[in-house]
């Protein structure tokens, strides 16, 4: 299953309250810089060119980077979480949702087969390491997109690749999603391989050799797993990566708008929800990510992306929160947890990328989930 945000819930922008009339921004709003900020460098110079300085100007554009949360936002979030806890998923239905997780993802893909492919242009900004793999002289490289959905990372890499020795694996919990990938005209069995695999399973997939991956892509995937399965996931990621290999990670942050909008009978357990289509989602804190990945990997980036999305027509403000990280498997004798010599800190000058990237609204959002029922 892919579990990725877009994961599966790459529906229309209007599904999260952003009118199509305001979803597209002008040339001045196009983003060409990272919008994530290292959680250990709160005083760092922010990336992204859309910083809200004057609150009276909030509705002058569609999105603002590094949206600061005041006491009002915090109290609102806590109030919504308290409201949800009063009416959780009925006990007799909880196990049903867990047992039917794979089938619910299959149903999602069957229903939305041609609606959720999205070229993640923002990958080139946030995870340039991925695109080092496609250079002509990069040599033999293996990349694996876990929770591939429609192949939103696989196909852009293969299409742009100049590296004849690049091979991209794509796997998903959902067999229907894997069929979508295989049926894509760009799918080439000589350059990539798609297959069904559960990241939360007991072992790595037989299609892949242990310690053979240079980069693992984990985007809006971990949040779909039951918290009891996180340790299995970490073990599998460790087995897949070469020593020195990298995980690129992005997922939902605590108090993201998508979390606060859930209505009654959607809370499975603390910060873990079931959507109206039966798929599940967890909302993380940075400390949880550090604890999970820091037990086995070197933490090269631990960042948060706080975005204020506005609907200028309806005068509505929506706060998004995503977490982002880069985690490297230590070389022999290396120590997990502590930042390495290549730690990425989102501070100082940021060199503008060579490509023209339209990342004006958000990173694959706010089309990441349907309206919670």
TrEMBL record:
Residue ranges, annotated region (Disordered): 1-47, 332-373
Broad EC category: transferase
Record key words, sorted: Cytoplasm, Methyltransferase, Nucleus, Transferase, tRNA processing
A Gene Ontology cellular-component term: cytoplasm
InterPro entries to which the protein is assigned, alphabetical: Methyltransf_12, METTL2/6/8-like, SAM-dependent_MTases_sf
Biased amino acid composition, Basic and acidic residues: 1-11, 27-36
Reactions catalysed according to its record: cytidine(32) in tRNA(Ser) + S-adenosyl-L-methionine = N(3)-methylcytidine(32) in tRNA(Ser) + S-adenosyl-L-homocysteine + H(+)
A GO MF label: tRNA (cytidine-3-)-methyltransferase activity
EC number: 2.1.1.-
Gene3D superfamilies per the UniProt record, alphabetical: Vaccinia Virus protein VP39
Superkingdom of the source species: Eukaryota
Pfam family, one: Methyltransf_12
Subcellular location: Cytoplasm; Nucleus
One of the GO BP terms on file: tRNA methylation
Purpose of the protein: S-adenosyl-L-methionine-dependent methyltransferase.
Family: Belongs to the methyltransferase superfamily. METL family.
This protein's name: tRNA N(3)-methylcytidine methyltransferase
Organism: Podila minutissima
